[in-house]
Amino acid sequence: MPRNVRQKKRAERRVQAAAAAAVDEVANDNKKLINGELDEQAMGDGHGNEVSTNASCNANGNGDGNASGKDQNANGNANGNGSGSNNNNSNNNNNNSLCPASSSNNTNLMHTKKPKTSRADPILASLSKNALRMSDVQLLHGPHWLNDAILNFYFAYLEEIKYKSNSDFLFVTPEMSQCMLYMDDKELHGLLVSQHQVLRKPFLFMAVNDSESRDRGGAHWSLVVASRPDKSFFHFDSYGGGNTSSSMELVNNIKDVLEMQHARFRGMRCLQQSNDYDCGIHVICMADQITDYVNRFDSVDGVQPLHQDVIKAKRNQLIKLVASLGQHI
């Protein structure tokens, strides 16, 4: 896609997002006037396969950077389908990172709000950038989609704990990758180069959602790995490549800033999910397997597909991980 076309599309998305944010602000003000105050625990309902998307970056790159995560309480039926009300939005709202501001202030590009305490929905584990609440962890016990809070938390765990001493890796959370779609080259440079030293990192792991607008969220997670040694962007999609267009759009938006203009986009063979709610688990498991492989071979090329047993065991492993990092489960 020519660069001028990409810039035009970016500008159109940013204007639309800013307009939608203004409309939402007016609507929220009206709701406050009617109800006296806004109930933080009732921010909206999700329906079916829709995703609540709160990502909005205005023309300066500011905004609410809550990436789109799947309906947190959607229950799978016998065929793996289901629907449910999204009553966990408050968790994401309390755990947002703002989209990066202008790159002129690189020390304050990403600001993390401190999660609010709640007796009804307590925080079970917390890292410096992310926290998990009881309602988040409950999603791991049954046939539920993972929300962005769980993916954010696990990517933070990989960065802050498991691979803390490995400077070769950068883990891009869903909320961060969502905001990157709205940024121009200057803002991306401030975030990725100035703040995260991305030009010194051979491997970037990016969790991507197929959300196409602020009003209607996506329905699927996949994983993109940028590898400098392989001169490639590898895309791992557990649901038939349905997230390819969103992943390619993100890659086209960032490859100039990464100085990987000539890198190939490669759709990779990977284990396909056996239901419609385990894509987040697949992303987490693939991130684990690929980082382990890269540590041994300094390359992504050649990594083998996951085994189904790894997927089946991961939810219990995540519950135990949260228990080891917290004290309330």
Automatic annotation (TrEMBL):
The keyword Hydrolase applies. Residues 40-121 are annotated as: Disordered. Coiled coil: none annotated. PROSITE patterns: ULP_PROTEASE (PS50600). Residues 130-290 form the Ubiquitin-like protease family profile domain. Residues 54-106 have a biased composition (Low complexity). InterPro entries: Nep1/2-like, Papain-like_cys_pep_sf, Peptidase_C48_C. GO terms for biological process: protein deneddylation; proteolysis. Gene3D superfamilies: Adenoviral Proteinase, Chain A. Keywords: Hydrolase, Protease, Thiol protease. GO terms for molecular function: cysteine-type peptidase activity; deNEDDylase activity. SUPFAM superfamilies: Cysteine proteinases. Belongs to the peptidase C48 family. This is Ubiquitin-like protease family profile domain-containing protein. The lineage of its organism: Eukaryota, Metazoa, Ecdysozoa, Arthropoda, Hexapoda.
